[in-house]
Write a structure and sequence with these properties.
The protein is of the alpha+beta class. It has one domain. Helix content is 28%, strand content 39%. The protein contains 2 helices and 5 strands. A 5-stranded antiparallel β-sheet has the order 1-2-3-4-5.
């Protein structure tokens, strides 16, 4: 688990999990990104193709040296997908 981004509006955490060897002998990598909307108090965990698309979008955004507002705007595209409330333990 690694915190990638933390602003007043959003937080992004990357989860990278390496499994044991599969039946074919290769190592399986699983993981994804948790995006938290702090104001709405909702979050989403993305993995697979959506996580890859998210990563590519962030990498393209970072090349332009974006402001915090521009990063938050990009992350805001995922708020409509957020269904899980943030619960603190």
């Amino acid at each position: 688990m690694q915190m990638l981004y933390n602003s007043d509006s959003f937080a992004v955490v990357m989860f990278d999990v390496t499994s044991d060897e599969s039946a074919e002998g290769s190592v399986l990598n699983r993981g994804g990104y948790e995006i938290v909307d702090k104001f709405a108090r909702k979050e989403i965990f993305i993995e697979g193709a959506l996580a890859q698309s998210f990563k590519e979008g962030v990498e393209a955004l970072i090349e332009s040296e974006p402001s915090e507002e521009e990063i938050d705007e990009y992350l805001g595209r995922f708020t409509s997908l957020m269904q899980h409330p943030v619960i603190l333990h």
